[in-house]
Each structure stands twice: as C-alpha cells, then as structure tokens.
Design brief:
By secondary structure, the protein is α/β, with parallel strands linked by helices. It has helices spanning about 10-20, 40-45, 60-65, 95-100, 110-120, 130-140, 150-155, 165-175, 190-210, 215-220, 230-240, 240-245, 250-265, and strands at about 1-5, 30-35, 55, 70, 75-80, 85, 105, 125-130, 145-150, 160-165, 180-185. It folds into two domains: about 1-80 and about 180-265, Periplasmic binding protein-like II (D-Maltodextrin-Binding Protein, domain 2, 3-Layer(aba) Sandwich); about 85-175, Periplasmic binding protein-like II (D-Maltodextrin-Binding Protein, domain 2, 3-Layer(aba) Sandwich), CATH 3.40.190.10. The strands form two sheets. Strands 1, 2, 3, 4, 5 and 11 form a six-stranded mixed sheet that branches. Strands 8-7-9-6-10 form a five-stranded mixed sheet, sandwiched between helices. Helix 1 (about 10-20) crosses helix 9 and helix 3 packs across helix 13.
Length: about 270
Amino acid sequence: MELNLAFSTCPNDTFTFEAMVNGRIDTNGITYNLTLADIFNLNQMAIEHKPDIVKISYNTYGLVMDEYELLDSGSALGHGCGPLLISKRPLTVEEIIENKLTVAIPGLSTTANLLLTFFAPKIRNKKEMLFHDIMPAILNGEADAGVIIHENRFTYQEQGLMLIQDLGAHWEKVTGLPIPLGAIVAKRSLGQETIRKIEKQIRESVAFAFQHREIVQPFVGKHAQEMSPDVQQAHINLYVNDFSLSLGEKGREAVSLLLKVGRTLGYYE
C-alpha cells in the first residue's frame, strides 16, 4: 500500500518521522510518498483533502475533522512551547489595537493565530505570511508586530526583536493545560485498521528517535536549513516529548478545549 505523507522540515517533524520514512521500523508493507512543506501549505493541503497523513495545526483540525482523524501519536503539544508575539520597538497590545497596527501571522488557520485571538480578540489587522518571513517583515517595517513559531522563538532576540506576549504562557495560565500546537491526522477513508497501524508506526518512530538520536540526526540536519545544531536540538527538546508518544488524558483535554475555543471564536463556521 502506498500512502501520501506530508510534514514540515522543522526538526521536531523530521526527528519524529525519520525512522518511519527511512525504513528503520516495520511499516507493515506501507510505502510512504513524502512531501515536505511549510505549515501554512500543509494546512492548506489538508483543507483540500490531499495527503493521506499530514501534520497540521490543531486549529486547522477543527476545519477538517470530518475528513481526517486525529492520531494519538506524533503531536507537538507541551508546556512552555507556544508562539510569541514580538515587535521591533516596545509596543503594547492596546497600541496595536488602537492604531490598527499590522500583525504578521503564519496563517489564519494556524494554532498561533487562534492563540493570538484567544489573548487579544480585538487585534484584527493581520497579514498572513510564511513563518520564516515574519521576522524579516518586522525588521523591514512591513509589519509592526508578528507571531513567531518554531525555531524563531530561539533566535528573535539575536535580531534585536522584543517580546510583547508569550501566547502559550497565556493559554497555560488561563486553562492550566498544555498547549496543543501541531496534530498528525489521517484520512478516515483509510479505515480503522490502517489508521491504527500508522498510529503505531509513528509511536515506534518517535521511540526509535529518542533511543538513537545519532542515527536520525543526519536527516534532521539535512532539512534544518541554516539552523545551528544547538537550535535544532533545542527545537526537538521543546516540541517532542511524552505527548508525542501519546496524547493521554491531559493532551486530549487540551485539544478538546482548544477546539471549543475555536468554535466559540467562530473559526469553524
């Protein structure tokens, strides 16, 4: 059986899937045709129902849950790992709202945007762009502020940028729950037997990576672009954890609440 699998080039995804796509675990006769893309494009691919298995924002899952099933393994979910609202000069949320300043976001259907709305629902002047274009846009004045994700949270201060609000910290403070960022979903049409096999393989792939970091590192590094090894490792440490092996009760509670918030805010109408 051949299935289309899509995830990002970010270290947490390449770390998670390396063993699965490179034949280091038993894939039960399933061959994966791999597509690597930015989360903005991955979300759009899922909305168009293209990949069989795909990494998406949890916010996007609220839009595609009729077509896709959430897998128990592979998620990016945790504590202290949320998106950050940043700017080039000192700004308050009140200033952004009052002056209708431009805020760059990594996609309307991203969890980052949902968490921004959860924190400051009156911020309306948003501009979508690929996540790696957000910091340059702030620096060159194309955007007054921006919501950064992934490895940018480790490097924004080096660019002279400053924090307005840790959006994940706000979520954790209000809810007391971990932050659901990225989900792995599979088409419901694959059937429960195949879906359970995929779920098991992802769990085994994550476990293999934890046990054999030196084996998976070349694949991670190959797709990490200009990211330093230290930033790659920090990225993995932050986003790949026990929740990646299994969402568990707390993880599912967090996902359920995030989707409830999304519905309340009108994201899934």
